[in-house]
Design a protein that fits this description.
By secondary structure, this protein is α/β, with parallel strands linked by helices. Helix content is 42%, strand content 14%. The strands form 4 sheets. It has a 5-stranded mixed sheet, sandwiched between helices. The protein binds iron/sulfur cluster. Iron/sulfur cluster (SF4) binds next to helix 18 and helix 20.
Length: 525
């Protein structure tokens, strides 16, 4: 048997490492090492119920397992074959215990594609990745496909950038490929900075080889021989797992010179970001990679034309890369059959806030917010009323009850005044003040403004001051008017996406929760 134990950041914080040590200790003491092997995996997603432990091939899923449960699991389940009922997930409405992962409401509507290997393999063991079709897509690309046929396949799949912008990935690859010159770069943007978002972190912690393989495929397609992963220094575990994955891949000839015996050379290095939110913007990211101040540039030229050290550079986000190997192996027709007409495939969301099932979820595009919040997320904590959900982090907007049945895709979210962003989803309930929520996000963007352009540098500060005054009950209607005016000025005249979207939480809370602003205004009767 195999005991899969979650070693994602969430479960590690709840002592899963200690649980793993004790399990190994008990296995040794019981001399049953020939019957069972303990494997640490990436995040299962159901962080609310961690630490999580799954036993294969029995397909039994245990939740909230603490180190002192280790002995019972080995003695009862592994040695005697008896399921430990009290460690099974208990369905809150029926009090029914559920044994299998696929029967749990949290997983039923999910489709794990980008996070397919998280919770399945040991991210530190390349052979486990290979056992699960790992590096087969790279092999196929290098032996059976031309650069153009790879690009064509990605274009036909309809994959769009998962970092927030939603730009078609295949087209980005094609533009970079078509630039003159032999020196090109491919960069993985792992500078995940939205409050509450941990999708990219979990992918890198749980399946680093998936990203490495995809970068090599992208490198081959656009004609790059060097890849860079730009990752936040605050993600030490993702960095360490990525580092060991790169070393393992080099040792097996999957990175470096003459990959898999072909004449394709490709290697990856990583650069650590210092945690500036603006460095998620691709030109700021490239400046930071070059050792310069992390500030955005005017576009054009776009990085695909003139990027890292002036060479054509393709920047894709972690989740975008994570989708590449399955598309190559299963084909663009299969991928494009998932999702909506303009947004194909799935999307990973980090569900957080006042929701029962906090965690990481992956659903087909077109799933409604109601399904995510109620069917998967288990509804609102402690029986409170849903008030709104903020998608897209500090750049997004709030979505209220009336739009909960909107099928999620890039365009629909924009249509209802929010955005996909990278996938942060924060649920708010009747105890939350929407003015305070807008103030929180504005403080974040004000602090993170790089200061390069005046509308964002000064405008967000003035907006924040007005919000503080209003939330303290000292604001007037003139302040509300000034706040509105400033919001549109900052939105329309800032240089990069950070400033252009910073006012969104204010604009959308004013639109949907005007009453809450008015209740705080002192010259309104
Ligand atoms: Fe910097 Fe803000 Fe201007 Fe972007 S909008 S360049 S973050 S000051």
């Amino acid at each position: 048997k195999k005991i899969l134990i979650c070693a994602g950041t969430g479960c590690l914080a709840s002592e899963s490492e200690k649980l793993l040590e004790i399990l190994n200790h008990v296995i040794k003491a019981r001399k049953c090492g020939d019957k069972v092997k303990v494997v640490k995996t990436g995040c299962f997603g159901f962080c609310e119920q961690g630490p999580i432990l799954k036993i294969e091939p029995d397909d039994v899923f245990y939740v909230r397992v603490v180190p002192k449960d280790a002995r019972t699991i080995i003695d009862d389940h592994i040695i005697q074959g008896k399921i430990v009922e009290r460690l099974l997930y208990e369905e809150p409405t029926s009090n029914k215990r559920i044994e299998k992962q696929e029967d749990m409401p949290f997983y039923k509507k999910q489709m794990r594609l980008a996070i397919r290997n998280c919770g399945l393999i040991n991210p530190e063991d390349v052979y486990e990745y290979i056992e699960h079709e790992g590096y087969s897509a790279l092999g196929k690309v290098l032996t059976e496909m031309t650069q153009y046929s790879v690009i064509d396949e990605i274009k036909k799949s309809g994959l769009r950038g998962r970092g927030g912008g939603g730009f078609p990935t295949g087209l980005k690859w094609e533009i970079t490929k078509n630039q003159h010159g032999n020196t090109k770069f491919i960069i993985c943007n792992a500078d995940e900075g939205d409050p509450g978002a941990f999708m990219d972190r979990s992918i890198l912690e749980g399946d680093p080889h998936g990203v490495i393989e995809a970068m090599a495929i992208g490198g081959y397609a656009i004609g790059a021989h060097k890849g860079i992963v730009y990752i936040r220094a605050e993600y030490p575990m993702a960095i360490s797992r990525l580092n060991s994955a790169i070393i393992q891949a080099r040792d097996l000839g999957l990175l470096g010179e003459n990959i898999l015996g072909t004449d394709f050379n490709f290697d990856i290095e990583f650069k650590l970001g210092a945690g500036a939110f603006v460095c998620g913007e691709e030109t700021a990211l490239i400046n930071s990679c070059e050792g310069k101040r992390g500030e955005p540039n005017y576009k054009p030229p776009y990085p695909a034309e003139e990027g890292y050290w002036g060479y054509p550079t393709c920047v894709n986000n972690v989740e975008t890369f994570a989708n590449i190997p399955p598309i190559i192996l299963q084909g663009s027709t299969w991928f494009s059959s998932i999702g909506t007409e303009k947004s194909r495939g799935t999307k990973v969301f980090a569900l957080a806030g006042k929701i029962n099932n906090v965690g990481l979820v992956e659903v087909p595009m077109g799933t409604t917010l109601r399904e995510i919040i109620y069917d998967i997320g288990g509804g609102i904590q402690e029986g409170h009323q849903f008030k709104a959900v903020q998608t897209g982090g500090p750049s997004g907007g709030v979505i209220t009850e009336k739009d909960l049945d909107t099928p999620i895709d890039y365009d629909n979210l924009l249509g209802i005044g929010s955005m996909m962003g990278s996938g942060g989803m924060i649920v708010l309930d009747d105890r939350d003040s929407m003015v305070n929520m807008a103030k929180f996000y504005l403080q974040f963007t004000m602090d993170e403004s790089c200061g390069r352009c005046t509308p964002c540098r000064i405008g967000t500060k003035r907006m924040y001051e007005l919000l503080v005054k209003i939330s303290n009950g000292e604001g007037t209607m003139a302040d509300i008017d000034a706040l509105k005016q400033l919001s549109y000025m900052v939105k329309n005249s800032s240089l990069c996406g950070l400033g252009q979207t910073a006012p969104n939480p204010v604009i959308s809370t004013m639109k949907y929760f005007w009453d809450e602003y008015m209740e705080l205004i002192k010259d309104v009767d």
